[in-house]
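Sequence in, structure out.
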Amino acid sequence: MTTLSIENVTLTFGGLNALTDVNMTIEPGLITSIIGPNGAGKTSMLNCISGFYHPTSGEIRYGDRRLSNASPHQVSSMGIARAFQNLELFRGMTVLDNLMLARHQKLHYNLLQAMIFFGKASIEESKNRQYVEDVIDFMELEAYRKSTVGNLAYGIQKRVEVARALTLDPQLLLLDEPMAGMNIEEKEDMVRFIIDIQKERDATVVLVEHDLGVVMDISDCIYVLDFGELIGSGTPKEVVAIPKVVEAYIGEE
């Protein structure tokens, strides 16, 4: 398992710093949360890790591999997957088709083999179909596998979004507000899935989430951002005792 190292990362847009000299160490096998008020830079940090943004300065490394200038495709090939806050699903396709399409990176056959669809292509498709079916079972989506995504309830679509990321068999899973807009029952289900992903699929989880109750319950480590700066880090008990963190969330007396 591999450590993600974020060293002095600064991200600038037209003279405005979205992130300023941020340092984090994401230890393997843990659930690490990144929290902060709106506009704190949480999603910007995930964008830098996943290759959608490139830091203006600083380094991001996954083990001995440098992510700072990597493309999203290169990052995903390293075993890093992401579920988005705004659903990145094909709404006119079924759950099964969305997950099979997300699995395309794992298909290893050429165009001719695909056209004939015999031998290696057939074997590869069968193997990947089996993996997708395993993810569907794991995320308890069996009842929706042939349903059109756009017709599903929002909470189920969020679950499909996480399943889409899981089809890449990630070692590191980035979750951007996976519980946003959910009711209490849906949140409880998602919390259970996140814990199972960590324990049963041996994945490192980086969670961006506004529900502090959830964050405090399931996180091994928490990093707190405010206006792009890191203002605190540690275990849940340590973080809630940091005056700057209390001030950022509650305000000064």
